[in-house]
Design a protein that fits this description.
Elements: H1 4-10, H2 19-22, H3 25-37, E1 41-48, H4 51-59, E2 72-78, H5 84-92, H6 96-104, E3 106-112, E4 120-125, E5 134-135, E6 139-145, E7 148-154, H7 167-183, H8 190-197, H9 216-226, E8 229-233, H10 244-255, E9 261-269, H11 275-278, E10 283-293, E11 306-307, E12 312-319, E13 323-330, E14 338-345, E15 348-361, H12 369-386, E16 393-400, H13 401-409, H14 416-423, E17 430-438, E18 441-449, E19 459-464, H15 468-474, H16 486-505
Parallel strand pairs: 11-16
Antiparallel strand pairs: 1-2, 2-3, 3-4, 5-10, 6-7, 8-15, 9-10, 9-15, 10-12, 12-13, 13-14, 14-15, 16-17, 17-18, 18-19
Helix pairs in contact: 7-8, 7-9, 8-9, 15-16
C-alpha cells in the first residue's frame, strides 16, 4: 500500500531525520485517507511546476536570501498495483483502452512543495467509495499523466505555509477552486488571496509572512474581489453562538447547489484548560464540502419546523491543519453549536464552536436561506396552530431551475399536464426549493425566486405530488390570501383550482 510518509522519503525527506515533519497530524491523517481509499501505488512525477506554488514563489520565496526550489513533486495515486513496466506500457499506448484502465484506478494526486515543514501543496483526491460521506461542493480536475488525460472529482486542498497563507486563506482557496467552475471566475493562488484580502491596508501586522491570519472583513473583501458576492451569517445581537439549526440548515441548503461554505469559529476545550493552554487556539476557518447523514434520516431531536437538515451527523470539511475530507461530528442538541474535532492541545480534545458562516455566491442569488426559512416558519406555525397532529418534515435547498426541471421529468406520480406546466414555465436561473415530506415521500415542492429583489418572495411554481397538504389547507378556518406567506397562498390557489375542477365535473 502507498503511504505518504514513504513518498516523502522518496522525495528526499527522511521520516527519521525529519521527525517533526512526518509526525504532524495532517500527514498521519493523509496516510489514513490513502489507506481507506485502497491506495496501492504512487507514481512520482519529478520536476513538476505547480501553478499555485509558482505564483507564491514569485511573490514571496524568490525574494528570500535562502534559495528555494521552484519545482515541486507530484505523486499520482492508484488503487491497483501497477509495475513500472505496466505504467510505461499504458502511457506509450495510443488507444483509449489504456486511458480507461488508468482512469478506472486513479485516485488523484498530491503536490509536494520544496518547503521545510508545510510540504502538502495542491491535493486533489477523490472521496473513499465505501464512505458514508456525500461530496457535494466539488469540481472536476483534469491532469495529464505523462500525456494520458485523467480526471478526479474533489474539493482541492492544501495546507497553510504560514508565509503567504494562514488557515483563512487556505479555506478561501479551497472554496474558490470550486466556485471557479460553477461561476467562471479565475482561479487565484493563496498569495493572491492574501493580497486581495489585505489590499485596503487595514490588517494588523505584515501582509507576508501572514502569521496572524485574516479578519472576517478581509475574508469577505477577498471573496468580492474574486468576482463573487457573499452571504455572511454571524452572531446574534445578544452575542450568542449560532444555533446549530441555522448552521446545518444553511449547509444543507447551499451544498445541494454545489456551493462550498466556510465556517469560522473558536476551538474550545472539551474539558477545563488554563487560559494559557487555550491561547493559541482562537479563531479558525475551514472549508465545508459535504456531510454524512444518519442511516434512518432522523436525528431524534424535536425542533420546529422539523428539518431534514437535522439528520446531518458529520460535517465534511477541508481543515488545513488536520487534513482533507475531515469529519466534524455534530455534538449535543440541535440548539447548540459544538462540533467534535480531532484537534488536541496539551493532551486536551478541542471542540469547534461556529461564530461565522460564509458562502461565496453568484451575484444574482439575492434571496438568502434565512428569507426562505422565515416564510417556511410562518407557514409551519399556521399549520400546527389550526390543524392538530400535523407531521410534516421540510427541506430547503438552492437549485438551478434547469436541474429542477430535469427532476420533474423523472417524476412518475404527477400528470403530464402538471409536468408541462412546470417544464414550459419561465423560471429564474436559481430557485429555492421548499420541499414538504410525509414520511419518506415528497408531497409538495414550492419554487421561490432566488434572484428576487427582496421586496416580497414569490412562488414561481408549486408542484403537489399528493393531496395531503392541499387537504390540510382546505380544512383551515380562513380562506383569504396572507400577504407575507406565499407558501400558504400557493396551497390556497391549489384548493381553488381543485374546487373549480370538481365543479366542472358536476
Amino acid at each position: 500500500p502507498a503511504k505518504f510518509t514513504d513518498i516523502l522519503a522518496q522525495c528526499g525527506l527522511d521520516p527519521v531525520v525529519d521527525e517533526q515533519l512526518t509526525n504532524t497530524q495532517r500527514l498521519r491523517n493523509l496516510d489514513e485517507l490513502l489507506s481507506s481509499m485502497g491506495a496501492q501505488v504512487a507514481v512520482i512525477e519529478n520536476e513538476y511546476f505547480d501553478r499555485d506554488y509558482i505564483e507564491d514563489y514569485a511573490r514571496y520565496y524568490a525574494r528570500c536570501h535562502k534559495l528555494y526550489d521552484r519545482r515541486c513533486v507530484r505523486a499520482h495515486m492508484f488503487d491497483k498495483v501497477f509495475l513500472l513496466e505496466d505504467v510505461k506500457r499504458l502511457i506509450l499506448s495510443s488507444g483509449d483502452e489504456a486511458t480507461r484502465e488508468l482512469q478506472a484506478h486513479y485516485l488523484g494526486f498530491v503536490v509536494i512543495r520544496p518547503l521545510k515543514k508545510t510540504v502538502v501543496g495542491r491535493t486533489c483526491l477523490r472521496m473513499p467509495e465505501n464512505s458514508q460521506m456525500m461530496l457535494l461542493a466539488k469540481r472536476r480536475v483534469t491532469v495529464s499523466f505523462f500525456g494520458c488525460p485523467l480526471s478526479v472529482e474533489c474539493m482541492p486542498f492544501q495546507e497553510q505555509d504560514k508565509a503567504v497563507s494562514a488557515c483563512a486563506t487556505s479555506a478561501l482557496w479551497s472554496a474558490v477552486q470550486v466556485t471557479s467552475c460553477l461561476f467562471g471566475h479565475c482561479n487565484v493562488s493563496p498569495s493572491r488571496i492574501t493580497e486581495l484580502a489585505t489590499e485596503l491596508g487595514i490588517s494588523f501586522g505584515r501582509v507576508m509572512p501572514n502569521n496572524h491570519g485574516l479578519t472576517i472583513e478581509e475574508m469577505l473583501h477577498a471573496v468580492r474581489r474574486v468576482g463573487l458576492d457573499v452571504v455572511c451569517v454571524r452572531l446574534t445581537d445578544r452575542g450568542m453562538p449560532l444555533r446549530k439549526s441555522i448552521i446545518l440548515g444553511n449547509l444543507y441548503a447551499y451544498l445541494h447547489a454545489g456551493l462550498p461554505l466556510i465556517l469560522v469559529g473558536k476551538l474550545l476545550p472539551d474539558s477545563p484548560m488554563t487560559q494559557t493552554d487555550c491561547a493559541m487556539h482562537d479563531m479558525h476557518a475551514i472549508a465545508v464540502c459535504g456531510y454524512c447523514k444518519s442511516d434512518d434520516g432522523s436525528s431524534g431531536i424535536v425542533q420546529r419546523p422539523q428539518l431534514l437538515a437535522a439528520s446531518v451527523l458529520d460535517v465534511v470539511a477541508n481543515d488545513d491543519q488536520i487534513g482533507v475530507y475531515e469529519k466534524l461530528r455534530v455534538k449535543g442538541s440541535f440548539a447548540t453549536t459544538d462540533f467534535a474535532t480531532r484537534w488536541e492541545k496539551n493532551g486536551h480534545k478541542l471542540g469547534f464552536q461556529v461564530r461565522y458562516l460564509i458562502v461565496p455566491v453568484y451575484h444574482k442569488i439575492r434571496v438568502s436561506y434565512e428569507d426562505a426559512w422565515n416564510v417556511l416558519l410562518g407557514f409551519d406555525r399556521m399549520l400546527r396552530t389550526y390543524v392538530k397532529g400535523v407531521s410534516i418534515r421540510w427541506s430547503i435547498v438552492l437549485s438551478l431551475s434547469n436541474d429542477f426541471k430535469q427532476r420533474v421529468r423523472t417524476m412518475s406520480d404527477i400528470s403530464d399536464d402538471a409536468k408541462l406546466d412546470v417544464l414550459t414555465a419561465s423560471l429564474p436561473r436559481y430557485i429555492w426549493e421548499v420541499r414538504a415530506f410525509y414520511g419518506d415521500k415528497e408531497n409538495a415542492v414550492f419554487c421561490i425566486d432566488a434572484t428576487d429583489a427582496g421586496q416580497g418572495l414569490e412562488i414561481g411554481r408549486s408542484l403537489f405530488r399528493g393531496v395531503d397538504l392541499v387537504d390540510i389547507v382546505e380544512t383551515m378556518p380562513f380562506k383569504d390570501p396572507i400577504k407575507d406567506n406565499p407558501l400558504f397562498n400557493a396551497c390556497l390557489e391549489a384548493v381553488k383550482i381543485r374546487k373549480s375542477y370538481e365543479n366542472q365535473l358536476v
